[in-house]
Amino acid sequence: MTVRLTLSFIIAFLVSSGVGAFLVPWLRKIKAGQMIREDGPTWHMSKSGTPTMGGLMFIAACVFVCLTVGFQSMLDGDYGHIFLLMFALIFGAIGFLDDYEKLKRKKNLGLTAKTKFLLQLVAAMAFTYLLRRFGYVTPSLYIPFWNVNIPMSEPLYFLFCSFAVVSTVNAVNLTDGVDGLASGTSIPVCVFFGAVTFLWGEQYTTLGIFASALAGGLLGFLLYNYNPAKVFMGDTGSLFLGGAIVGMALMTNMPLIILVLGFLFVLEALSDVIQVAYFKLSHGKRVFKMAPFHHHLELGGWSGKKWSEKQLFALFTGISVLCAVISFVGIYNRYGF
């Protein structure tokens, strides 16, 4: 297993970085430039025109690794990594439609919120049904740290998982607002799932292949996305990434681990919800200088310190590493190790 996981990481890194060498100039050539939010930090406007849809780099890496390193697993009848890949690709396709609409209109307005929500909900429900149908999940809720399982009714578990999918995908999408932030925050998450599969044994090999491939692909992408970014992942990449992360949580039958492992994603989403709700209830007042939370820090937060993009990358990545370590401790004794 160690060899296959290592190969998955290395090959994905090489494919992602190699694809980027051709993709970034091509995206520039066709003028696939990102439209920057006009209500965002003013200094972000200088990024307008930076190529988007760079997420295709790590998506290509995941596809390649799943079909090569994961080929033997398919011959053995284990399609777990293919389920994960297809699920993430569906969300990537939704993101691609959103990016395409933005490029076509030359504005930071893609699919409507209602359309995106409905498409994501349908994908979430379909994936949850397939996982249950093929025995990858059971209708019980695993509680990390306490190491207990709480039985749930099929309909309730189905609704819970669908909610978890849509929430996580959009939370990851919100985190993609500063150079390298979503990638840096997600790599420790992928390493966590890779470590989990190594701990739990051969039966989780396909999940490990996918997790390692995504980690390697993201690292290759970071060569181009680290500040100052030469390319953005776009909704094509961020929705694929969100789908992949929550898909791995479901495939390991522990969706609640996202609350700890993906603490920063939860924080980003909550800051956005709180800001909007308080703004409406208080008739124009704000809790944060700007939501989501990384923009609040960029603008000086409550302390007055304005965090640079490189500082935010280091802060979020460091916290994500810590959350991954804590999460691993929380599930270590799940199967008696």
DSSP strand count: 2
**Assembly state here?**
single chain
Per DSSP, the total helix count is: 13
Helix content: 55-70%
- Assess the beta-strand content as a share of residues: under 5%
Average pLDDT works out at 91
Q: SS-based structural class?
A: mainly alpha
Major β-sheet annotation: 2 strands, antiparallel
Which stretches are low in confidence, meaning pLDDT under 50 for 5 or more residues running?
none
Shape designation: globular
One letter per element, helices H and strands E, the order comes to: HHHHHEEHHHHHHHH
How much is the radius of gyration in Å?
19 Å
End-to-end distance, in Å?
18 Å
| Major sheet: arrangement of strands | 1-2
Provide a concise account of the structure shown:
By secondary structure, the chain is mainly α. The protein is built from 13 helices and 2 strands; from the N terminus they run αααααββαααααααα. Strands 1-2 form a two-stranded antiparallel sheet.
